[in-house]
# Entry
Amino acid sequence: MRLTICAGPATTGKTAVLRHMIRKLLQANRQVAFLKLDVQFADEDELLAAEFGIPTRKVYSGELCPDHCHVMVLSDALRWAEQEGAELLLVETAGLCLRCAPYVDGGLGMIVLEATSGMNLPLKVGPMLSLADIAVVTKIDRVSQAEREVFRARIQDVAPNVLVREVNALHGIGIDPLVVQAQETPEVSGTMYLRGNPPVGTCTICVGKKEIGWQSHFGVVRALENQTFYRGE
# Structure
């Protein structure tokens, strides 16, 4: 089983990129499964199942951060995909928490960014970019050549070792290198680990305490004039 995890902000074209990858993988006689993780609504699994006849599933994270939910369900998802006879599992995650990254050692990590989102976006998405293997830049036809070059430079400033691939996700132009990379990624085996360290999340807000102001909370907190500090036992 080979694993590709695709993350990125909303509306960047993640599903469009994966749709073209699935089509080309099927043309290469590869068996593919698809998993969608989102917070409260998604229909990509249904659309791709209807279009390609591949096994698909979706998971709603609900009260969990999507990236945390991803950690919980990924090993089950790999077993499910294997039972379905798949050789590659493509995972699309909402990736809404910019402190985390959903990528695992042994799998291919891919972030999708849109060139129209502003020149400073690569500086804002944290480890979702810096820990990726490939940065896929979409909507390149809607910006000038100069803007494309600046956007690429900003990506390389944040993640010098990340491969940058510019694609037209509407028509599938530039998808072939992604398909090659997905097929050449080694098979996953044994215990999998997240890339990088998850952020400290000891927080009373996360367990439902709604009062405003750090004085009402315990664990890892911060005030306007102070850096993060720990309060309470």
Remarks:
- The mean pLDDT is 91.
- The first strand starts at residue 2 and ends at 7.
